[in-house]
Write a structure and sequence with these properties.
It is a single chain. By secondary structure, the protein is an alpha/beta fold. The chain has a single domain, classed as 3-Layer(aba) Sandwich (Rossmann fold), CATH 3.40.50.720. The protein has six helices and four strands; from the N terminus they run αβαβαβαααβ. The termini are far apart.
Length: about 190
Amino acid sequence: MKALIDLADAMLGKVDILVSNAAVNPYYGPSEGITDEQFDKIMTANVKATHWLSQLVLPQMKTRKDGSIIIISSIGAFVGSNAIGAYNISKAADLQLARNLAVEGGPMNIRANCICPGIVKTHFAEALWKDPKVEAMVSKSLPLRRFGEPDEIAGAAVFLASPAGRWMTGQQIVIDGGAMVSLGAL
């Protein structure tokens, strides 16, 4: 991670925006079946990596008295699951990490927020959209009747990184095609 920040510093100048978007989920099933190694892998990639990357860029941001940390969480942070529970725990932890970073960095004009996508057509969610039957079945429960596209998440990151988002910190933006507001209909 330090090498990544050093490379960014060398190529682009000091980091003023961090978007932490890495996530893994090596286990699908009830929590009673997850191994310690799988749980640790989820927490390390999804929470600890963001924590450490943030700590690597915060000194630069504090010196400039400006910066934006954007953590990609998930709507899974808000619900329980009998299939991806550990993943959802990690994404809920991301929300708290953003709140803590917002409180700690706020006096130095450093903002920290989360974006909580629903199902987006990325490599990570391939199992849900590569099979047209599965995609159709899940999509019909969403108010917008489709999965998201990566550019539909990118706009929120641009907002949070820009001067337009300079008074927003410690928050989450849900972008999910209406999944959270329609859970009662499932």
